[in-house]
Amino acid sequence: MRPNPPVERGEGRGPAARSSVADAAPDRWTRWLGMRLAMGFIAVVLLIDVAAATHAVLIGFLALAPLFAAAVESPRRTAVVSATATTAAVGAGLPSGMLGSLDHLLRVAVVITVSLMAVYVARARTGREERLRRMAEIVRITQAAILREPPQYAAGVELAARYVSAYEEAGVGGDLYEVVADQDRLRIIVGDVCGKGLAAVRLASAVAGAFRQSAIVRPDLTQVARDLDDLVAREPTPARGATFVTAVLVELHGGEIRTVNCGHPAPILRHRSGDLEELTVSAPDRPLGLGGPRTSEKVGRWDVGDRLLMLTDGLLEARDSDRRFFPMPTLRACLAEPSVGRCLDAVWDAVHRHVGGEPHDDIALLLAERSPTAQ
Amino acid sequence: MELTVDTMQTGAATRIRLGGEMDLATSGLVHDAVIAALASEAVRDVILDVADLTFIDSTGMGTLVACQRAVAVRGGALRLENLAPVVRRQLFAAGLLGLLGAGTEDQAAPSN
């Protein structure tokens, strides 16, 4: 089994798109493989039976062919294999003259019974697979409703985002991002709800929604953070835990980067030269929802061609089998790819290589690149 | 990962010594220990000695905040002591040092 593709964001061509192309060719061949193998097995049993003159003793084994088909093929093809197995079982009585004897009839009865059962099993199996496929589709739609795809380009900035859920199929979790474009200004939040499960997903969705509203109407990010504080503080607290959201709020306006850090990993600025710089603040504020003072925006600059990576701690804390964290030099190499979408694909691949499978925590990534403005 | 919790009462303060890693699997123990300590009428303040704590994840931080609230509701204070550089850096980055009574500035020594 290949690892699950990530949730596609932004340019819509990532590891998922690549792997589906790679799978297309063998797919056509493997589609008939189960049927071929089952038929081949029937032929082999018949041959041995005739060649070794075992007087149709072996025909009980013919029942294995429909069983195998039921595991991998459609009900109709399983029925074809079943019919062939039954015919073969009857025919096997001819050369030895056993046809119609009690022994022969009993063995044929076994083959027929198992064959019928196999068709039923194949039907039940494909029905379940179809339901699973539909569920996966519903999950994809739900997740797109919770985490909206950012625009590929807005306010002079190219954007791409990826979300890797620790619950492989869920595609949503307690991480969130949201981008609000307002003419020549872009406001972004990337956050991480402390906690797991449905409550975390719900809060992540609520925070993203509140940010959409607040980011439009509030003059500065500090006030946006206070609005979100109020929202998170009203959430019920779980037993033996607390509800808060670490987040970084970013405003991109021309060459200016303003940040408010609420206990979240600092965004990483990649200069066009290739150097990485963490946009740390002297002391991060408390996470959203825990009250306390909010320090004012920190102002920095970026040039055309610079890239800004906003991330969650799932990336920084992704550990390999020796419990080593994700290495920064790898990240530097990933961020050198030609486009923002390709960069995030590279990070996604690198994380999976590092962890050796699915990461244990959700990872949300949002990458922005300042493009040359048309004015 | 393992977590050890040792409670020791000294007057109006309870000192709870933690060792190991605090994560989703183990954090509940810490909360239980703090609540158990608060059950005693005499106890107001709780000191968490985290000298041997090597790692804390976001669930662990949530638990520490929950402990802080539980103690504050009783009119007491929760204080973290002897933070290892890694843990100090984690709590600093999460903006929680002040809330947990462990100072405000990042005094982290260079990583070893």
UniProtKB/TrEMBL annotation, chain A:
Q: Name one GO molecular function term.
A: phosphatase activity
Task: Give the SMART domains listed for this entry.
Answer: PP2C_SIG
What name goes with this protein?
A: Stage II sporulation protein E (SpoIIE)
Q: Which UniProt keywords apply?
A: Hydrolase, Membrane, Transmembrane, Transmembrane helix
Matching SUPFAM superfamilies = PP2C-like
UniProt cross-references to Pfam families, sorted A to Z: SpoIIE
- Superkingdom in the source lineage: Bacteria
Q: Where are the residues of the annotated region Disordered?
A: 1-22
Q: Which InterPro entries match?
A: Bact_Sigma-Reg, PPM-type-like_dom_sf, PPM-type_phosphatase-like_dom
PPM-type phosphatase domain: residues covered? 154-370
The record lists the membrane-crossing segments as: 37-67, 105-124
From TrEMBL, chain B:
InterPro entries for the chain? Anti-sigma_ant (IPR003658), STAS_dom (IPR002645), STAS_dom_sf (IPR036513)
Q: Kindly list the GO molecular function terms attached to this UniProt entry.
A: anti-sigma factor antagonist activity
List the Pfam families. Answer: STAS
Q: Which domain of life is it from?
A: Bacteria
Q: Which residues form the STAS domain?
A: 3-112
The record's annotation in PANTHER family points to: ANTI-SIGMA FACTOR ANTAGONIST TM_1081-RELATED (PTHR33495:SF2), ANTI-SIGMA FACTOR ANTAGONIST TM_1081-RELATED-RELATED (PTHR33495)
Q: Which family does it belong to?
A: Belongs to the anti-sigma-factor antagonist family.
NCBIfam families to which the protein is assigned, alphabetical: ant_ant_sig
Question: Which named protein is this?
Answer: Anti-sigma factor antagonist
Q: What does the organism's lineage look like at the top? A: Bacteria, Bacillati, Actinomycetota, Actinomycetes, Micromonosporales
